[in-house]
Specification:
The structure holds 2 protein chains of 2 kinds. The radius of gyration of chain A is 26 Å and the shape is globular. In chain A, α7 links the parallel β11 and β12. In chain A, the strands form 6 sheets. Chain A has a 7-stranded mixed β-sheet with strand order 3-5-1-13-10-11-12, sandwiched between helices. In chain A, strands 7, 8, 9, 14, 15 and 16 form a 6-stranded mixed β-sheet that branches. A 4-stranded mixed β-sheet of chain A has the order 17-24-25-26, with helices on both faces. Chain A has 3 domains: 6-18 and 442-578, Aldehyde Oxidoreductase, domain 4 (2-Layer Sandwich), CATH 3.30.365.10; 31-131 and 188-238 and 243-275, Aldehyde oxidase/xanthine dehydrogenase, molybdopterin binding domain (Aldehyde Oxidoreductase, domain 4), CATH 3.30.365.10; 144-183 and 280-441 and 585-730, Aldehyde oxidase/xanthine dehydrogenase, molybdopterin binding domain (Aldehyde Oxidoreductase, domain 4). The longest helix of chain A has 20 residues, at 510-529. In chain A, α14 packs parallel to α15. Chain A is of the alpha+beta class. Chain A has 20 helices and 26 strands. By secondary structure, chain B is α+β, with helices and mostly antiparallel strands. Among the domains of chain B are: 5-54, Uridine Diphospho-n-acetylenolpyruvylglucosamine Reductase, domain 2 (2-Layer Sandwich), CATH 3.30.43; 228-329, Enolase-like, domain 1. In chain B, the strands form 3 sheets. A 5-stranded antiparallel β-sheet of chain B has the order 4-5-8-6-7. Chain B has a 4-stranded antiparallel β-sheet with strand order 9-10-11-12, sandwiched between helices. A 3-stranded parallel β-sheet of chain B has the order 1-3-2, with helices on one face. In chain B, β11 (259-267) and β12 form a beta hairpin. In chain B, α5 (91-98) packs antiparallel against α9, α10 (277-283) runs antiparallel to α11 and α11 (290-300) packs across α12 (312-332). The longest helix of chain B has 21 residues, at 312-332. The radius of gyration of chain B is 19 Å and the shape is globular. The N and C termini of chain B lie far apart (52 Å). Classes of the chains: A alpha+beta, B alpha+beta.
Chain lengths: 731, 334
């Protein structure tokens, strides 16, 4: 391999465009004749609309359309992403009179200006019949669903050995019940789209992690051929799982555009994004761990109740990582879903793994404390090489190295064991905590196409979306290093259905799917051009030698063990197609170890996190700059989740009360101290040819646990809920 | 947001006349950081807006005088926060501004408008379907049985428990500030302590300004006690958040460390800027100790009334007083 040019070590390929504002996001588009839409929403938590009054809205100057109910045959549900469909939920507003949650749209208003549309939407009024609501896990009237008995086998309980039987004869047992709150992703870019008809063809510009699902979901909703729909999402202003599917407003904008004969832009307000898009559901975890006196963990039980909606079963997958954090031979996971009156929850960065790791790693910390063992040493002693659930080896697992290297960088050996034993001169209590995280090594089928030109240009089209994680940089870097060409000569096309099929880019499989496909396409290109199998190449000359202006090659990648035709067909139909973490012959996970220092000031008790050390095992690091950014960003999310973020629900009203960025307190710069990140950077030998595992999600997993453990070390108090705020420390 | 008429008069006299001419429901516009926000939410729907933010002379800052500090009502929060005299001699005043909102908002918002910032109560801001006596008199108070972690424990009534949101007024009230206002009936001076009113049965009435009165300037009597002061703001994150509790504290100490003058006011805990006069008196004539500070804090909250989730504000408020007095004491002896 050639030496890495400096620019490839240090820069995002689109950094300049981003900071100069040259990047165009979905709703930046302003086609000629554009109209603007706004939504009117229900003010009740549950029931039915008995009448709607749109007269005042229609009287607002500039209003073109007020639509409260789609016409017969005009609109269908796109189905739920995890129920064979495409939408974040199966419920499509404006199809009937049912109100399932407060904030559900009851009308779309289209006007010449956003101001007129907003004003008119506020003037739409409705009368309702209301019904009793159940809003949280403990509310009267919820319906509890046994997940394993209801959903397909991939959501079955994970079981190994005999957990309960073994617990009974362990030397020690520790147990805790943990409550995790509702949270919202809050990407800076609001959910929105621009819908334009060109004859019978529909073009949608929308920031999305899943342009393929938008295309095929709209086809189902509008009753037209998917070939007539193109979705363009070159940049996403933060997705975090919330933009992983078809949003209910997109079809409404398309219908409005068709009815008015003009392009229509619909941008939800921040408050609407809290109510008409997915969120991290509330969950409750009971964890029991049994161990020998020397700290050998022999059995564990992890039971979870997770909120879902009345209309969809958003499955839980919490025990997938807790069964694999250690080599615990006897494990029983159990997951139940609790139907409440809310929009359907969904994926938010480390959706299951963050809550699960907080619960499990807090309990592990309790165990170490009870046994008088060092929490790092006890974790090292419980590492595993085989997957306790399947008995298979891990494709790669460097947990021990993550812990050792992290402990060294952090200075862990200076930690004193007793809670409350470390104090600054002014009385500030200091706590040091550690926790592990893991995330499945998923793999997604992908298609890559490379077009090489005789002028030296290289155009790389691949399945994936750029949500800021740096997929363009990782792809450009892979091609540049392979061929020995400048990254500036490479244009990367992602998030565009006019190109190759676009997968759901989530679950840390985006880069892990795109790069192997690109790698395979590079092999095809070398073959087509008669180039050596590796090493720097004069691509332009090789193309010129063919006598053609361009040479185009295409390659596909499918995960080990996945039937290529079936998953590629799903990919082409815009359906989720990812595989993992269990593959034939091996199990794949990314791992991380987080070390956290908290400082709790003496009088007030404000909790601060001055420094974090995180070491990740994500296989080969495909792009050092964006990888470090991913890991730091995950730590910031963990700090927010541990100490600040919760969406508040008033049980009388439903919906979410603190639905703006002032009151939903994500961390600010002043809350974040030093974050020191490092990578094992050893290629995974089995998951794909490139050697990458996922990184974006695992980065956050375990941060909250490490913070909770550090607070315990500082205070001797164990908090079993999040966020842990200063009013908790007063008691 | 509803259509409204917009005028931009050139002088304060014209502004007052323009507002009177515009009829009921007209609003002065200064930085716009609260008014526009509430207009977008539909909580404020003025038929007319009179923009005063470019009026010459309204933004003057004069901290050079021997008797008083003078801040034009239109002065920007960011500018006042960086005034060198304030930073040196009245850190509580500077900190109360620097710890408010975000730099972008402070660059827009004015020190006059900030005094009348309206509450952050989510039931007030949320509009339908929440009951709110402040927004819709007589509709009830959704906060009283609701999510009240951020709500007031002092100065509340059956009709309203909304917290006064500002920081600047807390520091000002501790230093006996007064406000000069101009209205249709001419100019008058209102002590800051008499500007805001507790909700009682009429939470929709938040201040004692007559319709059409404009805040011309804020005046603060000079005092050496300012040097030993702080504005201590406790919140859910370290920037861009409203106070859960806050305390403006100032002390002057004699050579023996005995308190000769004490100023104490609290934010985040009351429906109006809360001057703690009895607590101040308890401190004077004694050494400034953690115990004395704690007693002062306990005096502040002696009559506090808590709801469902805001009971922590009593202990947190007391500790905020203790910590603020410690910082003020350290500065007083430097």
């Amino acid at each position: 391999m050639t030496a890495i040019p400096p620019t490839l070590r240090t820069e995002r390929v689109d950094a300049r465009d981003k900071v100069t504002g040259a990047v165009r996001y979905g709703t930046d588009r302003v086609p000629p004749g554009l109209l603007h839409a706004a939504l009117a929403v229900a003010t009740i938590a549950k029931g039915r609309v008995t009448s709607t009054d749109t007269a005042a809205a229609e009287a607002v100057p500039g209003v073109r359309l007020v639509l409260t109910r789609a016409g017969e045959g005009e609109l269908a549900s796109a189905g739920f992403l995890l129920g064979g469909g495409y939408g974040f939920q199966s419920l499509q507003p404006l199809m009937d009179d049912r109100i399932a949650y407060r904030g559900q749209p009851i009308a779309i208003v289209v006007a010449d200006t956003p101001v007129a549309a907003t004003e008119a939407a506020a003037l739409v009024t409705a009368t309702y019949e209301t019904e009793q609501v159940s809003l949280d896990l403990d509310a009267e009237g919820v319906e509890v669903v046994e997940q394993a008995a209801t959903l397909p086998p991939m959501f079955a309980d994970l079981v190994a050995g005999d957990a309960e039987g073994t617990l009974a004869d362990c030397d020690v047992r520790v147990e805790g019940t943990y409550d995790l709150p509702v949270q919202h992703q809050n990407p800076m870019e609001l959910i929105g789209c621009v819908a334009e008809w060109e004859g019978d063809d529909l073009v949608v510009h929308e920031g999305s992690q899943n342009s393929g699902a938008i295309r095929h979901g709209l086809a189902a909703q509008l009753g037209i051929d998917a070939e007539r729909i193109q979705v363009i999402s070159p940049y996403v202003g933060g997705g975090f799982g919330q933009k992983n599917s078809l949003q209910p407003g997109t079809a409404l904008a398309a219908i409005a555009a068709r009815r008015t004969g003009r392009p229509v832009k619909l941008v939800s307000t921040r408050m609407q994004v809290f109510h008409n898009a997915s969120f991290r559901p509330a969950s409750r975890h009971r964890v029991v761990i049994g161990a020998d006196r020397d700290g050998t963990m022999r059995a564990a039980v992890h039971e979870v109740d997770q909120q879902t909606s009345r209309h969809d079963l958003y499955p839980g997958s919490y025990t997938e990582i807790t069964a694999r954090l250690y080599g615990i031979p006897n494990f029983r996971g159990h997951q139940r879903l609790v139907r409440t009156d809310v929009q359907t929850p969904g994926y938010m960065r480390a959706p299951y793994e963050h809550p699960a790791a907080f619960a499990f790693e807090s309990t592990v910390d309790d165990l170490a404390h009870q046994l008088g063992l060092d929490p790092v040493a006890m974790r090292l002693a419980n590492d595993s090489t085989a997957d306790p659930i399947t008995g298979q080896p891990f494709s790669s697992r460097h947990v021990t190295e993550c812990l050792r290297r992290g402990a060294e960088r952090f200075g862990w050996e200076r930690r004193t064991h007793e809670p409350g034993s470390m104090r600054a001169a002014d009385g500030t209590r200091i706590g040091w905590g550690v926790a592990l995280g893991a995330y499945k090594g998923a793999a997604v089928p992908a298609v890559a196409r490379i077009t090489a030109s005789s002028d030296g240009g290289l155009r790389v089209e691949v399945g994936g979306h750029e949500m800021g994680q740096g997929i363009r940089t990782a792809v450009a870097r892979t091609v540049a290093l392979d061929l020995g060409v400048p990254a500036a000569d490479i244009s990367v096309v992602v998030g565009d259905t006019r190109s190759v099929p676009q997968h759901l880019t989530a679950g840390s499989w985006g880069t892990a799917g795109a790069l192997p496909a690109v790698g395979a396409a590079l092999g095809e290109l070398r073959k087509a051009l008669g180039l050596a199998a590796d090493g720097p190449a004069d691509v332009a000359a090789a193309v010129a030698a063919t006598g053609q202006a361009n040479v185009e090659v295409e390659a596909t990648y499918t995960a080990p063990g996945q039937p290529p035709e079936i998953v590629l067909d799903r990919l082409r139909r815009g359906l989720p197609a990812a595989g993992g973490p269990v593959y034939p012959g091996f199990t794949a996970f990314s791992f991380v170890a987080h070390f956290v220092e908290v400082r709790i000031e003496p009088v007030i008790g404000r909790i601060r996190v001055p420094r974090v050390v995180s070491v990740a095992d994500c296989g080969r690091v495909a792009s050092p700059v964006t990888a470090a950014s991913q890991l730091r960003g995950g730590v910031v999310w963990g700090i927010g989740a541990a100490l600040r973020e919760a969406s508040e629900v008033d049980p009388r009203y439903g919906g979410f009360l603190n639905a703006d960025l002032a009151e939903y307190t994500i961390p600010v710069n002043a809350d974040i101290g030093d974050i020191d990140v490092d990578f094992i950077d050893v290629p995974d030998p089995l998951l794909n040819d490139i050697g990458v595992k996922g990184l974006g999600e695992v980065s956050m997993v375990g941060v909250a646990g490490a913070i909770g453990n550090a607070i315990f070390h500082a205070t001797g108090k164990r908090f079993r809920h999040l966020p842990i705020r200063l009013d908790d420390l007063l008691g | 947001m509803r259509a409204f008429t917009y005028t931009e008069p050139g002088t304060v006299t014209e502004a007052v006349a323009a507002l009177a001419a515009a009829g009921p429901g007209a609003r002065f516009l200064a930085g716009g950081t609260t008014l526009y926000d509430l207009m977008k939410l539909g909580v404020e729907a003025p038929a007319a807006v009179v923009d005063v933010h470019r009026i010459a002379g309204l933004a003057t800052i004069d901290t050079s005088g021997p008797a008083e500090l003078v801040f034009g009502g239109g002065a920007r929060m960011a500018d006042v926060a960086e005034d060198p005299v304030l930073l040196r001699d009245y850190p509580a005043l500077a900190e109360s501004l620097a710890k408010a909102a975000s730099q972008q908002l402070r660059t827009m918002a004015t020190v006059g408008g900030n005094l009348l910032q309206r509450t952050r109560c989510a039931y007030f801001r949320g509009g339908r379907p929440f009951a709110c006596n402040k927004r819709e008199p007589g509709s009830g108070c959704a906060a009283r049985e609701g999510l009240d972690r951020g709500h007031a424990v002092l100065g509340i009534s059956d009709a309203c428990i909304a917290t006064y949101p500002g920081d600047w007024a807390i520091a000002l009230i501790a230093f006996d500030a007064v406000v000069d206002v101009l209205g249709p009936a001419g100019e008058r001076t209102v002590p800051l302590a008499q500007l805001h009113v507790e909700p009682g049965e009429h939470p929709e009435r938040e201040h004692t300004l007559a319709p059409g009165e404009l805040i011309l300037r804020i005046r603060v009597p000079t005092t050496g006690t300012g040097r030993g002061s702080t504005y201590h703001k406790i919140r859910d994150r370290e920037s861009y958040a409203f106070a859960l509790t806050s305390a403006a504290a100032a002390v002057a100490l004699d050579a023996d460390g005995t308190v000769t003058d004490a100023r104490l006011a609290l934010g985040g805990v009351a429906t109006v800027p809360w001057r703690a006069a009895e607590a101040e008196r308890s401190l004077v004539g004694q050494p400034l100790s953690p115990d004395a500070s704690r007693r002062a804090g306990e005096i502040v909250f002696a009559d506090a009334v808590v709801g469902t989730s805001n009971g922590y504000k009593i202990e947190l408020g007391i500790r905020t007083v203790v910590d603020a007095l410690r910082i003020a004491g350290e500065r007083a002896t430097q």
